[in-house]
Prior knowledge:
The protein is α/β, with parallel strands linked by helices. The chain folds into two domains: 53-175, Immunoglobulin-like, CATH 2.60.40.3500; 195-419, 3-Layer(aba) Sandwich (Aminopeptidase). It is 35% helix and 26% strand. The chain is built from ten helices and 15 strands. A six-stranded mixed β-sheet has the order 11-10-12-15-13-14, with helices on both faces. Strands 5-1-2-9-8 form a five-stranded mixed β-sheet. Strands 3-4-7-6 form a four-stranded antiparallel β-sheet. Helix 8 packs across helix 10 (396-417). The longest helix is centred in the C-terminal third of the chain and has 25 residues, at 326-350. The radius of gyration is 26 Å and the shape is elongated. Residues 1-28, 30-47 and 175-180 have low confidence and may be disordered. The structure holds zinc ion. Zinc ion binds at residues 202-203, 209, 218, 272, 305.
Amino acid sequence: xxxxxxxxxxxxxxxxxxxxxxxxxxxxxxxxxxxxxxxxxxxxxxxxxxxxxxxxxxxxxxxxxxxxxxxxxxxxxxxxxxxxxxxxxxxxxxxxxxxxxxxxxxxxxxxxxxxxxxxxxxxxxxxxxxxxxxxxxxxxxxxxxxxxxxxxxxxxxxxxxxxxxxxxxxxxxxxxxxxxxxxxxxxxxxxxxxxxxxxxxxxxxxxxxxxxxxxxxxxxxxxxxxxxxxxxxxxxxxxxxxxxxxxxxxxxxxxxxxxxxxxxxxxxxxxxxxxxxxxxxxxxxxxxxxxxxxxxxxxxxxxxxxxxxxxxxxxxxxxxxxxxxxxxxxxxxxxxxxxxxxxxxxxxxxxxxxxxxxxxxxxxxxxxxxxxxxxxxxxxxxxxxxxxxxxxxxxxxxxxxxxxxxxxxxxxxxxxxxxx
Length: 420
Ligand code: ZN
């Protein structure tokens, strides 16, 4: 675009020199140049830089009483921050940022026991510093580098009392950005009356999910799998398919449910990959919703998966009062029966292609399965903590076989639901 503008100016100059007599042409050209300049302005002059900021050279130094965090940026970042409790955290909001940070730079250091960072939304990134106890932000400033280009963010943290932390937390509570809200939930053409499948790629953005033995991130596996499943489902021509996310971005758990519902999904499949301390434990599991977990492991898995919103620095919302409505209750029961029906069908198909855990049909209180009117299951494809499972999930042939099984199960379920 700037090239056009430049040529326009040059063109006007040449015209001015060559056709001195034709004032109206000159004015006309100038008018055109001005017009193109004005139309260019919103894109080039006032809008946020299209390129994300680049953050690099992360450093934390200090001890259990005082720690300084330094992070460099290629341009001046607009910074906002607030505090969270249980555990004690400092949340720093940034415009979209690419983090050029080495994993070992973010090892526990001084008062900082953990650092997470990543995208919250397409134009919003976030860093979350977890501390072992109450702390105070003594200083948080952005300074221009004197001897090198760019800017640096400096945060000085000191340990403090629980009371002082509480007071500071309340003081900083302003409007927490409503991050993770999908811009446009409805993707499906309302004219399309085909069976609609919502595929939910677990985690994303700042919430990486589980980490594999060789470093594979759950959020990447789930997105790859969701995209491949969507593609293959669409190739059958029989289904309308909606992805809750199609990029590496954070999405709240209730947003995922909302997207499925607003698109009139007939089925929601949430894709995940688990990780536990027992490295030899492996296999896929299919979960449905239940108030009381089927077993202790299911309860632990649901607790891990439900942490997502908290990991992203969102205050966990109070659960809304259950509507004591007989009709809603009936719908919920019917939905639950459909969820279990699909889960059984799915396990019947997956049994041919995928290694399953013992008693692979389990249930627990997963937030993402709480749509009252959309049959929903959560599939843990395997354990990223197991080397064999991790290798398989990264293997396109393994995924293709698993996807074929899922599609067979969807076909059988759709036929049964249609009464066919
Ligand atoms: Zn997960």
